[in-house]
Amino acid sequence: MIPAWLQAGLWGLLAGAALILGAAIGFFVRVPRRLIAAIMAFGSGVLISALSFELMDEAYERGGFGATALGFVTGAAIYTGANWLLAHRGARHRKRSAQQPSESEDAGSGTAIALGALLDGIPESIVIGLSLLSGGVVSFVAVAAIFLSNIPEGLSSAAGMRKAGRSAAYVFGVWSAIALVSGVAALVGYTVFEGFSPEVVAATMAVAAGAILAMLVDTMIPEAFEGTHDLAGLVTVLGFLAAFALSKL
Description:
- By secondary structure, the chain is an all-alpha fold.
- The chain contains seven helices and no strands.
- Helix 3 packs parallel to helix 5 and helix 3 crosses helix 6.
- The chain is globular and about 50 Å long.
């Protein structure tokens, strides 16, 4: 039988691998920007549903409202601060299929974009490890939701990187590294918090949920709306419904 800590790492790696899949599509296939935006909207809805019914609900059941609320706001604040710093160093449009700066236009933006992508992925991966703390079984809904949302994230960002003149080695180096870090983060989420109290685990899950929601509003949803406009809400709702159905089935 595979140890729980290794399961956590493998599930995190699987979810992170969707970034590479999406990046391959975005880099090698000329996907219309409107379709990319629609996929981003769908992925946003999937993640909103997952953090609502998997993360926040589970955090509340484990630690009550106080720990959940504190963690939720703290996660959003930490993400917002880190994202602000990276945005001012060239990573503002890292998830967009257009508008990304080239290295000649903004020196150091490549590193900032890579760090921004890492910032976006870590909270999601930690959630996978934390889900194993409840009965030793991973939340398949969380894994599926993160996998489904990672595809459009990698797709849109890689398309933008290609337009900005970044090489295939850079693009796939970034996403391969983040996929590996996703596996490590999921492993850490399980091993580090295995012995902590329910309140601490609840707060940590809520921190991840707050960071994910802030990430959606700051990065994915603007790209989705800019490309689809009036259809963004409908497509997001469909993504939300798909993840909700997974949680109930």
